């Protein structure tokens, strides 16, 4: 249904134009209404311009979802970096412990860099620059490493966690960074929705 006041469009002198977005089936249409006048400069009718903006709306929704997802994902490495850095600053730790934590800080910083790079690419609408690099990697090791990186997050909620591989899993040939983001998202959701002192 189109909710438009035709009398207002025709008879209000200071009225210039109006528009309305409507959905028809799976299409999203933008309707522009404008009056036109006769030779005596009196309103005599309505012009309607209909524009199909379905693809624009889909792209805009995808952009919003992507930005929301990346913003959520950025919180995890930022929290990890702050946690590891605070631990190093507040405690007298040995060299091996320091190297382990500094390695984690470096890894999380690299993850943030990739996410920001994705955002910049999206902001330029330059899909040609989105490169998926595939490689062979051990999925079990990737999961374990990602799980260990969330240890501080679990400790905040006094949660216990266990990560193990139940069988010999062959190497995976895929986009490692993309898979890592999926695994991280699953794990952070597990921490978020598991009660305090729960087990993961």
Q: Which features would summarize this protein structure in a list?
A:
200 residues; alpha+beta; 3-stranded antiparallel sheet; two-stranded antiparallel sheet; 18% strand
Average pLDDT metric: 80
CA-based gyration radius:
27 Å
How many angstroms separate the termini?
A: 50 Å
Helical percent range?
A: 40-55%
The order of strands across the largest sheet is 1-2-3
**What fraction strand?**
15-25%
Total beta strands: 5
Structural class assignment: alpha+beta
Uncertain ranges: none
- Please outline the major beta sheet: 3 strands, antiparallel
Anisotropy-based shape: elongated
Given the structure, what is the number of helices?
Answer: 6
H and E order:
HEEEHHEHHEH
Brief overview, please?
With 200 residues, this protein is an alpha+beta fold. The chain has 6 helices and 5 strands, in the order αβββααβααβα. The protein has a 3-stranded antiparallel β-sheet. Strands 4-5 form a two-stranded antiparallel sheet.
